[in-house]
């Protein structure tokens, strides 16, 4: 019989009552539970922001990193131990503002990690400044003046960057979101989920009420098939996804935009050139024996012979 | 001669690095000691670059000096730039096709430099044309001109082997190697060995270059042995020929690094390429690796991913130089706050900002020691030469893991790009200490406060769950703002410094050389070591000098330092550094209260050479100068 | 009473900041001096936050102290957290609906803190339920409980004004203000003034809050004047009520900042919002602005764009705290290399890493002074209080432009979030010095070497073209690697430091207070000033003490410092800082050779209060302790 | 008569002989010349790399900044003095590797500056490592092993980020490139030109010969109209541009992909809320008079009256 884990820590969750993050937390916990993930083999890597605190609330390994840098931390964790399930949580400011460079770079690598973005349109923890997903001209209550920067489109950016699983969820569509998370975890390659997350304290424009009226599920349309089923379809499916990604306002699609498993993952690429990887990997490779290096003097000289000159006497 | 100094000069891209490697191996094969610094512009093709080399028949040399016996030039710019660096009775090797070149027709010379050289030549009454300069050297300086028709020789070669004339330029490096070998009397078989080692993977180049050697020999046979080097008597039967980048890379592999991240930057990147070359190896059925060498999108990702890899249990490091380190500072403070063992190999180059990206400096000491907000334990370790760099690299990982702290291994461009002959490292002397590791059950506390060092588990260890947070945290790693917890956790992280100072052996803290009852003590760190040791040796007949090579720069080994200088009044301490401020003196003042007032500084980006160092020490000791600023070298 | 200490506590989000502002203005209106520190978690809603305030009838207070006379609590957590902080005969104000609250049923308390409090209560024999705590205070400590039925009063209010019950919580802040005002005997008209100022833009709130005041008054009228504050006799007829963030923002506007970049970060961002509020103003037909306040994508862009704006001729600055500063280090070195005047306002908070984002510290001194690779001139200036911060902010721009250097204005969270009553700044005292500016013709050399300060032109100046480069450059700004040019250009940039030290007036370098023939000298900088001055004043009857408030931290004013301490043996110097290492002592040792061995440190994130500072000084002087670590405050 | 400027400095250009950068330099100089830009009102802001040196070779103001940071420097320069013509030059590593976050942010702002990317597929100045535009699996001669990261598509990323002028040029199509540069400078808003630039020293895959065979001009197809001529067209034109941006390999389009002048520029947005901007701006606003602030004591107290309490005596 399978061992059951407790996927929530006992800490008090200090988000504002009504915050969309609660919905995300529940979905994550549920998804982990249903996948039966081993907490000791699972890592949540989070950035700094209200969203980033989630690492403490889930009872798997948690690495609560620096603002904007969760992706590179996650990359090191995953590359060193490819056996781990690594899930990144970040705010929209975290991932698409200060961390946008890493966000793009992860797409290029198609490393097998999941990125879940808590998209609340604001910098929550610093008290409500406009985040990169807040549209131009919008004035939330925390802003003195309407937003002067355009929004970046997270789905489009993810598609342009090369993510091979791109989806959008909504914090208060629990089951739907939980399913997206499960699929993203099962997906081989870089997965991105843009989660619409009401911030009750600072964002009075993109509220639960707003989303209730505007969101619709992509898979309600039976003809919507975002999955690349043979490599030749990739271009067309990508273009379909891009076209859909432009929808915003009256009707906001949630669900899967694009899935392509025909792109090699970074781990696969590495294993092609790095013998024994990923089975032997940085976290389990033997590097010492009884406090000594694994190489003997003679073996050392053998390996580095190109640097050694035997004096001709 | 017992020792010979050489400058090989030519445009960037002409293959001087190859010449250096071939000549280095060839000389080592016969049993000579070699050291060679490479000077080049931040440029890919065309700017003036040169190799400054010293060959010794009696020892493994550790510093360079001016003037040199041989100036071997590929182009006219080399002659203009270095004509003044050749000793009387030395030789100058040049391409006769350059004889009519006027300095005004060499666009690659910087205007500033051109004007400087023209002024100098004008004072000597020499017009700025190569043939006049060569004439001047021969007549006024008794320097032998060795003229070679580069064009003709290479034409012969390309014809013989039907080489595409567009490939002709790649033979210039072999030509210059051949010429120098002939002049110093290095036998063909050694030169051949050098070519063989260098071109292992392109055998046709070996054949061509040996033929080239013969053509050059035909052309200048009469100069064979004209500056002959004595037969070697060093007595080692094996030598390693490595750059600083290489030796650190090799040491990291021995240390067990399994994750190395980098973002390309001079002069650090070559280290990562060498590790990559050895990313997986098998010997006696034993796997060494795999090592993940990761080119990240920037230095922020380099440090953050290295920290991540460390959390997963990998020995993990990154390598960079000043601009990159600046970007790593926030990550460094995360490592400090979360007690993460990670090694940052920091190769200093000329700053501030992009500065002099391909020139050397030691001006980042304070940055390495103090950058990052908040207080926490970091270790800053420096190495004085290639041999130290090897052992210190391994020690850096040991310290990092034993004390769960970030370690900065502070090196510089001089070391990075200098090729040196060293004894083969003694692997038996190497220890690997991974520190306190646990694999115990569910109630694991990553930051257990019962000891300064909390037992470490890796992400992924069975049945263990843990948390890390850049926020102040409790023993489990969860955010806590309670002031009492803060006091304990903050103190714990800082107080490891005491432990490190207590437990680190003296030889990792510092090296002490020279006279036990010195008149003067010279203090330096890093790349100053070789030239300092040669200086105290050279002056030993007239002065009792001692050199202290500071290695553990932070936490500063106050106790031992004070013990060593206790009989030396502070006016008799001289600090030397490749910087403006000679900042080690500030660090000493801060950590020990000893005020060093005598300083030798160089910050032109070029290394301190023996001649200037000796002069500087003499000026301080005999002429009572306090602050000597050096500037020799093009 | 002459002075009253108050704690107002409640959950984050309940409006305590509003209470602080209303009460501050109300008290100032009557002529009292006020200072109030705000303590809060890195959390938006629910964690415990509090205001620690001191009201004075005789002066503008400059430090806080425990115990306080009044503890006014919105919730049970406040009572548990602070019950021990109230003086005998003080009062505790609380909501009677909380009486049965057990500490175990308050999830927002951190486990660590809860255990600590429970242990403390257990030792006192008090069970961890509010009513027992209140009982204990009344019986054992002679503290008057003032019970208010919050729910009932607010219900009355919401009913009377037909307020949506979901809005009820926003009235708690007014309730607490009212209660405190009544207890200290502040007349209704002043409270009304406070509400009017605060809610200027939402007039209905003024009406509601005044009604609320009356309801509270009805409920606790019997406690009016129970801890009465004396009539004010400060004698100023105008006061400014500002936080540190505000006063710096205002000063920047006066200084003429026209470009301010920021990336949101506590506790710096509020400064930018205040500037933004005043981004354009007109008065007497005179335009003040426009000021471009730019929220960038990160701190790297913040510093780089600020440098860019400066190159275009704008007075330009950015504001951040530790993590953001770390990311600015490479940009800082560019500014140094290119002699760019730019001001970085650096508010320290608890580090390392994310640390304690909403708590105070002075642990970034070394980071501010030494972070960045390569050597160059930077200026680090700190301010001891709100008044200094005003003038220093302007001086920071003057120094930056006069010497063409980056200036770091080093402040902290204590200052940033503390509200204080200060005299209105004297604009006549303010000077604006934009340094040497030229508008001359085509052969302009941006980095003219004929003087340490090269005349500056702006990008866009007519008929002038110039270059900047992070690479080492010649006088025109073009890349040059020549060693002689390097020597000159590198030295020029560093040697400005001497000029700055020569020309800066003493009062910008340091403030000297207290006895001219002191037994002991206390040295500190920044936020330590107020408490240090109150300490030397308080102890003046038994000890002759002097306080040196170091302001120019880098370049360090060695000469003046030595002059001042020349008659004080170093064992009689005490350094004090909100840090573990008391790092100012290290800086002093480095710059002057004076070894300060007596230290007072606090690094819990909470400010040093007068009671602990006095005790610490006495322990050092009378009990011969060397190192006192403080930790008072929740 | 118009004053004629000399648009090249006398410095030796130290790029490798045959480098595509020479073509770019010539096109820039020609474009500036034809536009008659006033050198003192024009600024080239460059990053670090072979490409970055261009700032020294053109005789207009040059700001040779930090690796990856040319865009934020340029932003400060332009915002402080909106009268200036600001052109950013950066390498592909500079703009899309370390600087990708700023690249995305500029699109969101639509600030009126031009970004010219020297796209050589390598980190030139650090000796030939793979840059973010080098495709997966490609092994140039400077690489020990085939590239392990996917390429980012610069055109697609620019479109996704919100640039309102997006084009591609080729270093050795001088007139074509010059014209693109002129149009980009005249464009109101953030303009991006991806310039294919052979690196003769390190990139032996994307050579001049390769490009000679593969590039074609978009405007050879008369039906290709990348310009948004009314706001409603924006979506369709964007999708067209995106579709074209996916072309690579056998046929590589150069020319204009997308132009949209209906998006407000950042300067316009600012001027809506900042009275007098851009005419009065940070670089020309008066801030002192005879060494004193422009505010008198009374004016100071008037402006900051909210912070001042008159004690009621
Ligand atoms: C380098 C750095 N800059 C700034 C901050 C301050 N900071 C903390 S949280 C945050 C933004 C949070 O916004 P977002 O990422 O959208 O997360 P949210 O709080 O909305 O979940 C910022 C800017 C920081 N911690 N580090
Ligand atoms: C922070 C920092 N990291 C690394 C470097 C080293 N560096 C100099 S140029 C360069 C890359 C150049 O590549 P690219 O931007 O494509 O320009 P190119 O040389 O190809 O024109 C790098 C990484 C640096 N100068 N600064
Ligand atoms: S501020 Fe917004 S995002 Fe943060 S916890 Fe509160 S509701 Fe959630
Ligand atoms: S390395 Fe490449 S990009 Fe750089 S100058 Fe040479 S050819 Fe041009
Ligand atoms: Mg957010
Ligand atoms: Mg490039």
Query: Major beta sheet of chain A, specifics?
Result: 8 strands, mixed
CATH topology of the largest domain in chain B: Pyruvate-ferredoxin Oxidoreductase, domain 3
Mean pLDDT of chain A: 97
Gyration radius from CA atoms of chain A, angstroms: 22 Å
Mean pLDDT of chain B: 97
Helix percentage range of chain A: 25-40%
- Tell me the name of the CATH class of the largest domain in chain A: Alpha Beta
Low-pLDDT residue spans of chain A: none
Write the layout of secondary structure elements.
The complex is a heterotetramer, with 2 copies of chain A (313 residues) and 2 copies of chain B (634 residues).
Chain A: H1 20-35, E1 42-46, H2 54-57, E2 61-64, H3 70-80, E3 85-91, H4 92-98, H5 100-109, E4 114-119, E5 122-123, E6 129-130, H6 154-161, E7 165-170, H7 174-186, E8 191-196, H8 208-214, E9 215-217, H9 234-245, E10 252-259, H10 266-273, E11 288-289, E12 292-293, H11 297-303, E13 308-310
Parallel strand pairs in A: 1-2, 1-3, 3-4, 4-8, 7-8, 9-10
Antiparallel strand pairs in A: 5-6, 7-10, 11-12
Helix pairs in contact in A: 1-7, 4-5, 5-6
Chain B: E1 3-11, H1 16-30, E2 33-39, E3 48-56, E4 68-73, H2 76-82, E5 86-95, H3 111-124, H4 130-141, E6 144-148, H5 150-161, H6 172-184, H7 188-198, H8 203-220, E7 238-243, H9 244-255, E8 257-262, H10 269-277, E9 281-283, E10 286-288, E11 292-295, H11 299-311, E12 315-320, H12 322-337, E13 342-350, E14 356-360, H13 365-370, E15 379-382, H14 386-403, E16 406-412, H15 413-417, E17 419-422, E18 467-469, H16 483-503, H17 506-509, E19 510-514, E20 520-525, H18 529-538, E21 545-550, E22 552-554, H19 558-565, E23 573-577, H20 584-592, E24 598-602, H21 610-622, E25 627-630
Parallel strand pairs in B: 1-4, 4-5, 5-6, 8-11, 8-12, 12-13, 13-16, 15-16, 20-21, 20-23, 23-24, 24-25
Antiparallel strand pairs in B: 1-3, 2-3, 2-17, 7-17, 9-10, 13-14, 15-22, 19-21
Helix pairs in contact in B: 1-6, 1-7, 5-8, 6-8, 7-8, 9-10, 9-14, 11-12, 18-21
The structure holds thiamine diphosphate (TPP) (2 copies), iron/sulfur cluster (SF4) (2 copies) and magnesium ion (2 copies).
């Amino acid at each position: 019989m399978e061992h059951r884990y407790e996927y929530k820590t006992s800490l008090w969750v200090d988000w504002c009552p009504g915050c969309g993050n609660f919905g995300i937390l529940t979905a994550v916990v549920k998804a982990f539970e249903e996948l039966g993930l081993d907490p000791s083999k699972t890592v949540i890597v989070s950035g700094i922001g209200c969203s980033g605190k989630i690492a403490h609330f889930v009872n798997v390994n948690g690495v609560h990193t620096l603002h904007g840098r969760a992706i590179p931390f996650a990359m090191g964790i995953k590359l060193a131990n490819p056996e781990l399930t690594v899930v990144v949580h970040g705010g929209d400011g975290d991932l698409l503002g200060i961390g946008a460079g890493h966000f793009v770079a992860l797409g290029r690598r198609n490393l097998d990690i999941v990125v879940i973005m808590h998209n609340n349109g604001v910098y929550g923890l610093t008290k409500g400044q406009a985040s990169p997903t807040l549209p131009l001209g919008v004035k939330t209550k925390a802003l003195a003046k309407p937003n002067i920067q355009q929004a970046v489109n997270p789905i489009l950016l993810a598609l342009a960057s090369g993510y091979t699983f791109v989806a959008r969820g909504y914090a208060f569509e629990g089951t739907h979101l939980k399913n997206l998370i499960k699929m993203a975890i099962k997906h081989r390659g870089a997965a991105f989920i843009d989660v619409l997350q009401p911030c009750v304290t600072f964002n009075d424009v993109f509220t639960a009420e707003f989303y209730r009226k505007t969101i619709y599920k992509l898979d309600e349309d039976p003809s919507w098939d975002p999955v690349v089923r043979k490599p030749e379809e990739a271009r067309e499916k990508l273009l379909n996804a891009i076209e859909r990604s432009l929808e915003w306002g009256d009707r906001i699609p949630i669900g899967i935009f694009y899935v392509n498993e025909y792109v090699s993952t970074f781990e696969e690429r590495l294993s092609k050139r790095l013998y024994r990887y990923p089975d032997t990997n940085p976290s389990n490779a033997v590097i010492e024996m009884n406090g000594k290096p694994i190489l003997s003097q003679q073996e050392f000289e053998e390996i580095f012979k190109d640097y050694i000159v035997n004096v001709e006497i | 001669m017992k020792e010979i100094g050489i400058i090989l000069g030519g445009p960037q891209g002409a293959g001087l690095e190859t010449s250096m490697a071939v000549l280095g191996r060839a000389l080592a094969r016969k049993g000579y000691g070699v050291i060679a610094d490479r000077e080049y512009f931040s440029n890919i093709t065309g700017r003036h670059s040169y190799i400054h080399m010293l060959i010794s028949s009696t020892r493994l040399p550790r510093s360079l000096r001016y003037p040199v016996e041989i100036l071997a030039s590929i182009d006219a710019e080399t002659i203009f730039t270095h004509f003044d660096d050749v000793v009387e009775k030395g030789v100058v090797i040049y391409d006769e096709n350059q004889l009519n070149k006027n300095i005004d027709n060499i666009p690659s010379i910087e205007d500033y430099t051109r004007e400087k050289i023209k002024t100098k030549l004008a004072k000597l009454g020499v017009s700025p044309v190569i043939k006049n300069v060569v004439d001047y050297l021969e007549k006024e300086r008794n320097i032998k001109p060795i003229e070679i028709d580069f064009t003709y020789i290479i034409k012969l070669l390309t014809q013989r082997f039907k080489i595409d004339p567009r490939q002709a330029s790649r033979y210039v490096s072999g030509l210059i190697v051949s010429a120098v070998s002939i002049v110093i009397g290095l036998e063909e078989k050694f030169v051949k060995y050098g070519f063989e080692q260098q071109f292992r993977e392109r055998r046709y180049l070996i054949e061509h270059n040996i033929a080239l050697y013969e053509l050059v020999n035909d052309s200048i046979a009469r100069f064979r042995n004209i500056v002959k080097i004595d037969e070697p008597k060093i007595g080692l039967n094996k030598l390693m020929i490595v750059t600083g980048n290489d030796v650190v890379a090799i040491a990291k592999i021995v240390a067990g690094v399994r994750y190395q991240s980098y973002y390309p930057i001079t002069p650090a990147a070559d280290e990562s390429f060498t590790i990559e070359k050895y990313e997986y190896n098998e010997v006696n059925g034993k796997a060494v690796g795999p090592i993940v060498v990761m080119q990240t999108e920037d230095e922020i990702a380099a440090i953050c991913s290295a920290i991540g890899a460390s959390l997963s249990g990998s020995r993990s490091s990154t390598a960079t130089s000043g601009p990159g380190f600046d970007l790593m500072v926030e990550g460094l403070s995360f490592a400090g706050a979360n007690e993460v063992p990670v090694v940052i190999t920091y190769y200093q180059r000329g700053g501030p900002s992009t500065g002099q990206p391909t020139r050397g400096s030691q001006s980042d000491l304070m940055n390495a020691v103090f950058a990052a907000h908040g207080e926490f334990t970091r270790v800053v370790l420096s190495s004085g030469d290639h041999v130290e760099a090897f052992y210190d690299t391994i020690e850096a990982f040991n310290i990092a893991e034993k004390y769960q702290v970030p370690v900065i291994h502070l090196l510089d461009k001089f070391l990075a790009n200098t090729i040196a002959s060293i004894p083969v490292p003694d692997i038996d002397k190497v220890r690997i200490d991974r520190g306190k590791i646990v694999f115990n059950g569910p109630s694991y506390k990553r930051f257990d406060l019962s000891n300064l060092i909390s037992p470490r588990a890796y992400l992924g260890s069975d049945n263990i769950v843990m948390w890390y947070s850049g926020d102040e945290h409790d023993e489990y790693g969860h955010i806590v703002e309670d002031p009492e917890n803060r006091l304990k956790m903050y103190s714990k992280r800082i107080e490891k410094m005491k432990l490190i100072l207590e437990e680190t052996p003296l030889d990792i803290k510092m090296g002490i050389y020279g006279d036990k009852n010195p008149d003067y003590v010279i203090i330096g760190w890093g790349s100053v070591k070789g030239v300092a040791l040669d200086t105290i040796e050279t002056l030993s007949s007239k002065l009792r000098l001692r050199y202290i090579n500071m290695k553990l720069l932070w936490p500063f080994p106050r106790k031992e330092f004070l013990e060593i200088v206790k009989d030396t009044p502070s006016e008799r301490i001289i600090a030397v550094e490749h910087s403006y401020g000679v900042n080690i003196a500030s660090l000493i003042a801060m950590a020990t209260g000893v005020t060093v007032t005598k300083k030798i500084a160089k910050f032109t980006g070029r290394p301190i050479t023996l001649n200037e160092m000796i002069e500087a020490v003499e000026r301080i000791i005999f002429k009572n100068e306090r602050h000597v600023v050096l500037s020799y070298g093009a």
